[in-house]
Specification:
Elements lengths: L1 H9 L7 E4 L2 E4 L2 E4 L7 E4 H7 L2 H11 L1 H10 L26 H7 L9 H12 L3 E3 L6 E3 L5 E3 L4 E4 L3 H15 L1
Antiparallel strand pairs: 1-4, 2-3, 5-8, 6-7
Helix pairs in contact: 1-3, 1-4, 1-7, 2-7
Length: 179
Amino acid sequence: ALAMAAAVDTGAVTPETGAYFEANVKVDGETIWNSQKSAYGYETMTQVLENSDNVGMVWMVDRLGKDRFYDYINNFGFGKLTGIEIEGETPGMIQDKEYVPRVGVATMSFGQGITTTELQLVQALGAVANNGVMIQPHIVKEYIDKDGKVQKVDPKIVGRVFSEKSASDITNMLISVAE
């Protein structure tokens, strides 16, 4: 969903953009299959998400391009700490853009070849629910300080990662997936 959000936000695709997809695609000599191991045929980008079609995602990320894809990976906060108020958070692992082969970008488009934490996913997907604005996650809403006063923990906006229109488009695409 996040890779698709990047492609929709940049205009590389729309929810209605479509193409014919085979059961697999070769990238850097490696074969990437869809889960059914049979061709879906013509699909829109919404249907690519509905079918969780790896082949369609590879096509989409090729249109988006490695540089723009990595810009969104960074903007979503992958490979970085969220800053949540607990010990032990890890940043996950993102392959260095300069050295990642095309097949690495292809597999990252559908969630392989990248490691994230649940908190990073919540933070990034929260931007869809927040109209494109990413908010830092917190574990407390408020606390009582040493003087007995209630201290509220206000939401901290990390930044806008995509437009309100793109957030609306991705929301509608994900509703279609769920239905």
